[in-house]
Amino acid sequence: SPRTMKCVIAGTHLRVFGRAIHAIARISDEFWFDPNEKGLALRSVNSSRSAYACVFFSSMFFQHYCWTAEPELCQKKRQLPLTCKLVMKSVLPVFRWLNTLERNVEKCNIYTNVNDCHITFKLFCKHGIVKTYNLAFHESEPLQAVFSRHMCPNVLKIQSRLLTDIMIHFPTYQEEVTVAVTPMKVCFKSYTEEEIDFSKAMHTKIHLNPDEFDYFQIGVDSEVTFCLKELRGLLGFAEATSASVSIHFDVSGKPIAFSIEDMMVEASFVLATLADIENRESSQQSLCLSQRQKRFEVGGKRCTGSSTAFIAMKTHIRASEYFVCTKTHFIKYCIFQFHSLFFGAVSLKEQDVISHTLHSLATASDAEDDFDNEQLSQVV
Amino acid sequence: MRFRAKIVDVACLNHFTRVINTIAKLAKTCTLRLTVDKLYFILTDKVANGGVSMWCELNQGNFFDEFQMEGVAAEHNEIYLELTPENLSRALKTAQNAKTVKIKLTNKHCPCVTVAVELPSLSSSSRIVTHDIPVGVIPRRLWNDFREPSVPDFDVSIYLPVLKTMKSVVERMKNLSNCIVLEANLNGEMNLKIETDLVSVTTHFKGLGNPPWVSEDGSQNSTQDRDPESMAEARIDIRKLLQLLAGQQVNPTKALCNIVSKRIVHFILLHEEVSLQYFIPALA
C-alpha cells in the first residue's frame, strides 16, 4: 500500500501519548491522525471552529517510526497523504488507565491498514498479554489553524505547574476566563455572559506579578476571553511533560495560543476569543469588503448572544463537494480549491441563528504553490 | 454597614473551612447573621426547605484574628445577609496554604462578601485571589423571622450513635425507602427502621445514654414520668437525615437528638467552637 504508518511507543512514553489523547478529547469527539515523514500529529477542531488542538510527536519520540508514501505514485494518481479521522470514544479506552498503562505495558505498536480503513493499536503488556484494538477510521482532510504565533504582540511563558495553580481557583463549572494584561500587571478573572443573572454568580480574580513568569512581553494592553474548559486539556498534558507553557495573544477577538515544546513533543491549543462590543462593529465592516462571501451556519452553543470569534482554518481539499444543511434551506457548495477562511467576529443570538447568516471572507491565499488558482464558487 | 475580618492562623482557617463545608451541605441558601461576638448560619423552616430549619453558631474570636463589624444602626448592631454557602466553600477550597484570608462586605455591582486570599508566590509580592460572592442584605423589618428556635417540648432526648456508623446505616437504607422512622427511649435505646411493601429493615442501637436536661426554672424535667421502655418515634425524610450525617466533616464532641413524637426531631451537634442545631419535621 502506498500510504502506511507504523510506529512503536515505549512503555515509558505511553503516559505522555495517553495524556495527549485525553487533552484532545476536551476539544472534540473526533480527531485526525496525521502522520508525515517528520512524525505524527494528532489534530482536533471543535464543532464551532472556536478551538483547535494539535499535538505533534516527532519521530524521535517513538522507539521506532516508519512512514512510507511513494511520491511518484502519489503524484500520478493525485493521491492525498494518509489522513485518518478517528472517533475519540473508540480511542480513549486504549489509553484510559494511564497509571496502569505505565506500569503494565512494555510497548505499544500503532499501524495503519489503509485497505480496510483500520488503525491498529497493539499493547504488549506484562505476562505475555497482548491487547489489540482495531479502530476504524474514515478518510478526512485535517484542518489546521491559520495562526502565526510570531505575529502576536503579547507573549508570556509560565511553568505549567503555576498555570494549573492559577486555574484551580476557578470553579469547575466556570466556562470562560479573561486574561487582562498591561506591561505592569496580569490578572485572570472569571467571565460571565450578561444574560446570566449577574447578581447570582461568584466572580473570581487572580492578580499576578509579572515576576512570576519566565518570560513577560506585553506589546499591547489587552483583555481576552477564552474557554477555560478547552484549555484544561492542555493543562493536564502539560503536567505530564512538566514543560513550560507559552501563551501568545493579541487584542480581544484574535485567537490565543497555548503551546508546549520540548525536544520530542510539541502541543498547541489555539482558542478563539470573544470580541469586544466596541470592536464588533468595525470588524464586521471590514469583513464586508470581501468580494467572495460564503454563507454558512455555525452550530454549537458558543453562539449565544455574545460576540464569538472563530479561528481561520485551512485544508487541502481538492475536488469534493461540501454540503451545509441549515434548518430552513439546503445550500450546496462546490469547492474546487479551498484555500483559507479569514476569521471573523460575529454576533448571534441563539434564537436568531437560523435567520442570521454568518458573513465571512473566503479568499484564495498564495501560500500554497502546488494548487491551481481555481475559484470558490457558490451554488444555491 | 461595614464588615471586615481576617484569618491568619492555618488551623483556624481549616476549621472555618470545615464549618462552611458542613453548612454548604445542609442548605442551598441561608442567612448569615453577624454580631460583635458571633456568626450565625440560619435556615428557617420554610416550605421550600421541606420544613427543615438550622441554627449554627460560632464565636468569632475562635477563628478570626481581626473582626470589625458595624451593623445597620447603633441600637441594632447586627448584619443579616442572604447567601449561598457553596460559594463561600468554593472560595475557601483553594486557600489552604494562604498567608491570610480576609473576608469583607463590599459593594461591587451589588452587595458582595469578598474573600481575598493572599497566597505565597515565587515573586516578591504575594499572589492575591479575590472571590466576590453576591449576597442579599436582609432589611431590619424581617429580622424577626430569624430568631433562635426554642428547644421543643420533647418526649425523649438521647445521645446519637457514632455518626459515621449511623451514616453508613442510613446510606444503605436510602436505597430502599424515602422515609425512615427514628425511635428512641429513655433507656438509651434507638432504632432506625424502614418499611416498604417488600421489606422492612431495623437497626438497633443500645447503651447510647440519655442526656440530662434541666428546665430553666430549675424544676424537674417532664420526661421523668415517662416509661423508660416506651419509644418516641418520628417518621422523617431519609434524605434530610442523610444530608445532616453526610455533611459532618469532623466528629462532634457531643451529638444528641430530641424527639417530639410524630412531630419533629431536633438534632444538636456540639464541637468545641461551633454549635449546630438541625430540625427535621415528621412526615404526615
UniProtKB/TrEMBL annotation, chain A:
Keywords: Phosphoprotein. Gene3D superfamilies: 3.70.10.10. CDD domains: PCNA. Interacts with HUS1, HUS1B, RAD1, RAD9A and RAD17. Belongs to the rad9 family. This is Cell cycle checkpoint control protein RAD9B. One of its GO terms (cellular component) is checkpoint clamp complex. GO terms for biological process: cellular response to ionizing radiation; DNA repair; DNA replication checkpoint signaling; mitotic intra-S DNA damage checkpoint signaling. It comes from the Eukaryota. It comes from Gopherus agassizii.
UniProtKB/TrEMBL annotation, chain B:
Keywords: Cytoplasm, DNA damage, Nucleus. GO terms for cellular component: checkpoint clamp complex; cytosol; nucleolus; site of double-strand break. GO terms for biological process: double-strand break repair via homologous recombination; meiotic DNA integrity checkpoint signaling; mitotic DNA replication checkpoint signaling; mitotic intra-S DNA damage checkpoint signaling; nucleotide-excision repair; response to radiation; telomere maintenance. It comes from the Eukaryota. Signal peptide: none annotated. SUPFAM superfamilies: DNA clamp. It is found in: Cytoplasm, Cytosol; Nucleus. Belongs to the HUS1 family. This is Checkpoint protein. It comes from Gopherus agassizii.
